[in-house]
């Protein structure tokens, strides 16, 4: 019989344990002298509205055990239910053919399940609990109050002793362990752990507060394990103590004498959505957002499978649709597709998402799942945040989003590499996704203002100009009408840059004077001169200018890049020219990575005194090229880096990605795996096995890849030994850099993110929005409104302004408008003020993808905790 059964039914008799009734047990009554204790027992708080339904279920499926007394001194009415089941041992059944005396061993055994219900009907402490044994918890969970355990734990547990988290991350699984153990970090408080990793808490353990122990001596020094469903006391308690504890829990829950520990608030920010009706609405809303919203909003999602470790190494991924005649293949990819690839494959055609399926092969096995179950991300539905993880939906408190944005801002501010830092990647990147045969001439100006303008000699500038002019003339027939002006723009631009000593800003023609500069420039050919002179002779000198001015200015400032691409071969060897032209040419990630080793290295070596060498921290004593190419060079199936940069004291390992979203997650995983491997090489005897293999792949390369062959020749020419290569990683500071191109149009760069401190609302902000009344009258109204909003909990006063609290969302919009109307604001003014509050509600973070923000926060946390000797930085690659 179980401990619960023994504690209540002694010697097989249906007698209530005498101490529960205040009686003294005696040997004559056949009762045990030793008090039986329940060890590691979970307590479940039952929902009052489902209590009778639960009792009916137990009466139908369980046997109720008759008790001597059902009303206890602690005010609980008790019922005990039991069910028995005959079972056989599987191992014995399998081995019975080998057992000599089968009758002695091949027997059945009885499995007992007990469920105790304790109901307190006192009006001041109304509540019901359940205690169960065996598989009884499966029967109890549907009737449990899932808010009680976390609510009480915030009042009775010490947040400084929290440990042994079991959690799920909102951006899905990674190759890291899903359990975080912090028992060895007693000084760490809960907010630091939570805000650094952002999880959906499924369980944790903490000690009971000393203050709470004052009336419950038997709980002294014990801890409680908390889940969404139950409280488990990690100590043996008698049934008498158990009921005493349950009554105290009701008192704590309903009393105002106990305050919540703020550190525990983060545990309740994320809650699973259980309503079937709401889940269906969210599924539909998810599909609508995919089909109707812009591609920018689609970046809030990623595609993944629940078996993440298999998904990372998947191949032959297939998207198919179930039809009446069978499955129809929509698209197949060799490796993992991105969410944008899925959108492109689905197109604009309406499909039933419930019929779509993802299939893939990993480690020789085929796996599949519904397409809807493979989507990770968030939606905003009825002004609330919901996360979709696999097939589950979770409601996220807006305070959680605010805290995440705050932490994200701090991480970016701390980790971002600025353009003046030596770790910055200087070359701009024109991605294939936004390629255009006609690019704006401002791109040329912007680029030459930056990295290479001062390094370009007069001879090189003239050569580039000649190439542009010749390409313009030879391709005149296929160029648009406005290209004649384009050539003049190019000519004007390079002519203005012929002076090496001229100031940067003075070298560049201002856009406002563009038309005037164009009119004063000489034409390209004799035919054009004759045409102009004929126009003048006819008295129509303004006709040509008028025709040109009718063409939009943005169009006139473009030139034909395709004409230049065909002539790249003519300037191979003139690396400055090629770098400049490459920056205006759409390239993929691999080609961008190669530019640093194939082109920029040569420029740095031939211009050792340039400002660029100084800014990039080039080490003149370095045996190796400053930049090394590592894309697609694998060690133990791991890519250590895309680009390696060597300075005097540091080794920069860049992982480069185009876009911010799902690719951020991939980059974060690559960085973690690479850091783990490099750390193993530095700390263990596997240095030769890891770093030595990378070196050997370069030295022993025999295929035809030009970059790898050049790398091999450079190593041989410079006499770079394996020991020299190993010393780079063993003696220099390791800096991992997540380098990304944010290809979203109109988005602010990361160094312009707005913090929540900058998002405080001031009265001056409100004055600027409402300019329709006299200043004094308006100030009086604003003062009254701010005080009213403070008293309603919508605003809280800070040193330099007000912060808009989450009650702004909790209150009905009509109630907020009523506050404005009471002061005398018009509907238009109330509307403006309402939107002003909304804009200041949370930090303005330009990154819309919560997946990207989660990953970068979590990556920074992982480096701080797991790789303290390594440094993590972020680098935003600029567009041309």
Automatic annotation (TrEMBL):
Acidic residues compositional bias, start-end: 526-539
* Superkingdom per UniProt: Eukaryota
- Renumbered residue ranges of the record's region Disordered: 494-551
A single Pfam family it belongs to is DUF6119
Q: Specify the protein name.
A: Uncharacterized protein
What organism does the record attribute this protein to? Answer: Sinanodonta woodiana (Chinese pond mussel)
